[in-house]
Design a protein that fits this description.
This protein is 31% helix and 23% strand. By secondary structure, the chain is an alpha+beta fold. The strands form seven sheets. Strands 17-16-13-14-15-12-18 form a seven-stranded antiparallel sheet.
Length: 373
């Protein structure tokens, strides 16, 4: 996006990519159909040490702007829940669109060309696998540490530090949780269960599917919560959002059925049984004191779990943290202390929620730098 925008302004542009093919992350995104943006793009859906930093770039390149590129190309698309926009056919269409847009703008792409080093010398000099490249301006669009199998690395963070910029400690995000050992043993029998729930973490709540795995929790709601989770913090899980469980249980106080039988109307049987057993609610309902009934309902609406960690960069969809925005211009993405040096996309400390927000940040930040470089 940055190369096409700069090229369209008449700039001489060279893209160096160490990968053998362009857009590897785009190709696998959205299950191969590329969730290329979201209608609800806005600063509220991004995490950063400076929550307002992304506002300028997002305002100047909107979901409608990217959608116009898609429609002009004739790419079929559809909308899913929560404003997520996907290709009808293949994510490769987005890669092809971007490559052809670069070609029309005169931007050249060199694949399988890793950069060994960068230094300043009346601009920048890059030592690459194909020799030296001298340039007046340098845009770093190297992504984060997620998807190492696709060639992800920390080179962008290293370059920022080399030129004196601070880096917010990177961490895996939009990633499944791993239970602490005690919970993993107790919840092992729940593997494969999926249900609608709500997970609260660090003052935000995310509703959607959760999936119990052999190691912990996955599914969209869990991945969303991981964006704001820090080690040692608890998750509060509402397993029955929108259900007045206490009212239902109290209305059946005279029942001889066990709570797990009544709960099975709302929850998978294994999950209902586990929570009843852990609270000792294994007698007929008419033998359980009201205090214990309230405790059971409260637990199912606010089950508190402190994960042992996450699955890490191996399965993380994005990297949170990155180049500190305090050192960057929000309008141009240029490094304030190093004129001519720009950072865009995931390498910057701006991380979006699940649903097309991170790709849109790539488009918007690339476009902002492309207008200025």
């Amino acid at each position: 996006m940055c190369a096409a925008t700069a090229g369209a302004r008449g700039r001489s542009v060279l893209v160096l990519d160490h990968a053998p093919q362009a857009g590897a992350k785009i190709r696998i995104s959205g299950g191969g159909r590329c969730n290329f943006t979201n209608r609800d793009v806005g600063a509220a859906h991004y995490l950063s040490n400076n929550p307002r930093f992304c506002t300028s770039a997002l305002a100047r390149f909107t979901p409608r702007d990217f959608l116009e590129l898609v429609e002009r190309r004739g790419i079929g698309w559809h909308e899913r829940e929560a404003g997520q926009l996907f290709c009808d056919a293949s994510a490769r269409q987005i890669v092809d669109m971007l490559r052809e847009t670069c070609a029309r703008a005169g931007a050249r792409i060199e694949l399988a060309c890793p950069v060994a080093s960068v230094r300043r010398d009346e601009g920048f000099v890059l030592e690459t696998a194909r020799g030296s490249v001298r340039t007046a301006a340098l845009v770093v669009a190297t992504g984060g540490l997620s998807y190492a199998k696709l060639g992800a690395s920390g080179i962008g963070h290293d370059l920022a530090r080399q030129f004196g910029l601070a880096v917010v400690p990177p961490r895996p995000a939009l990633v499944p949780f791993v239970f602490a050992q005690a919970d993993r043993e107790a919840c092992g029998a729940l593997a494969g269960i999926s249900l609608e729930a709500s997970i609260a973490c660090a003052g935000r709540s995310y509703a959607g599917k959760i999936l119990f795995t052999h190691r912990g929790l996955s599914g969209p709601a869990a991945l969303q919560a991981s964006l704001r989770w820090l080690p040692g913090e608890p998750l509060t899980i509402d397993l029955l959002p929108g259900t007045d469980l206490l009212g239902e249980l109290l209305a059946r106080r005279g029942s001889r059925a066990e709570p797990k039988t009544l709960l099975a109307r709302h929850l998978p049987k294994r999950l209902a049984a586990l929570h009843c057993e852990r609270l000792g609610a294994v007698r007929p309902l008419n033998q359980i004191p009201e205090r214990e009934i309230r405790q059971l309902a409260g637990r199912l609406h606010a089950w508190t779990v402190t994960p042992g960690g996450t699955e890490g960069y191996t399965t993380a969809e994005v990297t949170a943290g990155g180049v500190d925005t305090a050192g960057l211009s929000s309008k141009t993405m240029e490094a304030r202390p190093v004129p001519g040096l720009y950072f865009v996309g995931e390498v910057v400390d701006v991380t979006g929620e699940l649903g097309g927000y991170n790709l849109h940040w790539a488009w918007a930040s690339g476009h902002a730098a492309g207008l200025a470089v």
